[in-house]
Here is the input.
Amino acid sequence: MRFQDAARDARTVVYAGIQADPLVARVAGLLVAATPAERWMARAVMNGERTEPEIWRRIFPSLFGEGPAAAAAEFLGHAEKLLAASLEVANRGEQARSSYRGAIVEELTAQLLARRSGTVKRERRVLFDGVPAEIHPYDVTVESAAKPEVYDCKWGARGINADVLNQLDDARTHAADEEIELDVAIVVFDARRSADIRLDRSTARRDGTRLVALETFDELAKARP
Amino acid sequence: MTERAEAAARAALAYRALADLAETVEDEWQYVTDLTDAYLPSIEALAGAAAPLPAGAMDAVDEAIDEIALITDPHKAIDWLSTFPHVVAIALGGDVDEGPETAPTERADDAEPEPPEPDDDPPFKLLRFHR
Here is the structure.
């Protein structure tokens, strides 16, 4: 088994430009340190119709000065920064927004994984001896010789589909054929409950695939057993 | 009816309208139905929480309702079917990640398990590697 950079086509070149936008890293960095409520706020704002900050402050009063969580200036300042950055994404327009959101989930995943591993890479394929290569690269990989990991990242649970689940499970199985324990996971910036609902209707094999959801993102930074 | 119950009832009504819009995406009808079946009772159950209503909660719920009322794209409505219940739960100080508590006579583990439904898969064609 070996990792390889994905071939670059026109779509990936455009998307690479979005991934490299400093706004993506800034939003992801703020989400790394965010509380679950702040992450929900960011998701709502980046999905939202309205872009006036005062409206979002009213929707999340506990984050912006009216509840106990906002009592500390530290929390208030962080929520304001995250709101402002999320609105910058929302203001990029409907077309760009969905690409930005995807790139943010990938960057958030990469930043959290980097807290425990120095071998985090992006847009990589995994090749196995005698097995045709998958077309789609993995969004984030941890290329440890002892415990490699691959991650597919989604903004919403709706992005979970049979193709993604099958690719992850196939990779895990092929790695096992080479006596390598490949950890495969799907990451969704959405409620675990919604992801479970999505998965419940899928017949794709997924018993060896981990699910990381909005409430459990911090697990990515913790060492794997 | 308490303020909390009124807010939860208004949120539930808005959620039903959002689900009506979302289910016009035919390939996602099952997912929309499953989300609605899961979250609608959880939103309604927020009415019964014993904790005092947090400051700004009523305005927060009304603003969130106004926000989803602006949605005209059914695909965006699907995104909000997962988001809106959590926004309302944060505002009202509750949880929508578990189903509402069942009465002692209706314990979930006493119920006959339903047979799994077949997965006829059409949503996956449209959603290939959707970000």
Residues 94-114 of chain A form the longest helix (21 residues). Chain A is about 45% helix and 15% strand. Chain A has a mean pLDDT of 92.
